[in-house]
Specification:
This is N-acetylmuramoyl-L-alanine amidase. The protein is α/β, with parallel strands linked by helices and 337 residues long. It has helices at 2-28, 63-80, 97-106, 140-156, 176-179, 196-202, 205-223, 231-240; strands at residues 41-46, 84-87, 111-118, 129-132, 170-172, 185-192, 248-249, 260-266, 271-279, 284-293, 299-303, 310-320, 326-335. It binds zinc ion.
Amino acid sequence: MDGRINGMMCRQIERAFKVITIFLTIAVFASTARGDLSGWRIGIDPGHGGTDPGAVGPTGLQEKEVNLTASLGMRYFLVRQNAEVFMTRTTDVTLSLSSRANFMNSNDVDRSICVHHNSSSNPDPNWHLTYVAEGTGWATSGDLAFDISHRVTDFNGLGFGWSNCGREGVYEENFYMLIYTYMPSVLPEISFISNPLEEQRLYHDRYCYGNGRGMYEGIMDHLGGWGGDAGEVEGHALEIAQLPTEFKLHQSYPNPFNAQTVIPLELPQRSMVKIELFNVSGRNLGTICEGIKEAGWPKVHYNAAHLASGLYFYKVVVEGLEQGGSFMDTGKMLLLK
Ligand SMILES: [Zn+2]
C-alpha cells in the first residue's frame, strides 16, 4: 500500500511535468499537433500466447492470434501519433500474468491495455465490453474503457454487453491485470470469437487492425483531446485498417430465428442500402432497412415478431456512393415460432 501511495505521488509529479510538456507541445505546434501523444507511455498486453491459445473459435481460430493482430494495429496508430508504446509480446510466446503485470509496472506506463476476445459455449452472443477493476468504472480507467468501447463498436458494429456499473460498454471485474498494475488499466474484450460469423471476420487481419484502430481512437479521445474529428488521421488509418474489398451479403443469423435476426453486410464504400422482405410466393412484405451506411461491416437488425412462421427471402440492393457500382443479392431465412 505504502509503495503504491509513494508511487502515486511520484506519478502526480511526473504527470504535472507531462502536462506541462504537452501544453508546450500544443502551444508550439498548435496548428499541426492536435491529438499528438508525445510524452505518453502506453502499455499493450496481447492476451494469451505460446502454449496458451486463449479461447478457440468454432473452426479453430485462436484468440492469442487475433489479440496480437489487433494489438499490433493499435500500436501502429499510437506510434504514428508519437506515443511511446510498450508491448508485453509481439510474437507467439508464453508469458505469465505476473510477468505481464510486472512489465507494465516496471516500464511505468501511463495506461495499460490488455487485449482479449470473448467466448461463450453458446454460439449466438457477440458483443463488446471493456473491463476495469472493481470500483473504477467511473474513475480514469472507466473513462478510458468508455472511450475504447465506443470507438471499437463504431468500427465493428457490435453492441455492448450489459454493464454492472451503470456505464455503457464498461464492466467492473477484478481480473489479474487490472488489479496488479499500478496505473489506470483496461481490458477490452473486442468481440466473441465463439460466434461463427465473428470468427470469420476475425480471420481477416485488416478487420483485427480495424479493431486496433478503434482502441487507438479511444485512447486518442481519452488522452489526445481528439474528440471525434477523424480527419487528421483518417488517411493513414485506412492504410492499415483496410475496408472490405467487395460488396457482400452474408447469411442472416441466427437461422432459424424467433423473432430477432441480424443480416450482415460488407461494404467497401459508403453506400445506399435497401433491404426488402418477400414471402415464398414472391409477395413484397415491406422494407427491412433503407438508408446510407458507412463502409465496413454493418449489421442490419430485424424483428419479425409480426410475421407467421415460415420461409422468407431478403433482397439487398446496394448503390456505392463514393466509387459508384451497385450490388444485389438475396438470402433466405426461416422463422420458427
Ligand atoms: Zn482472453
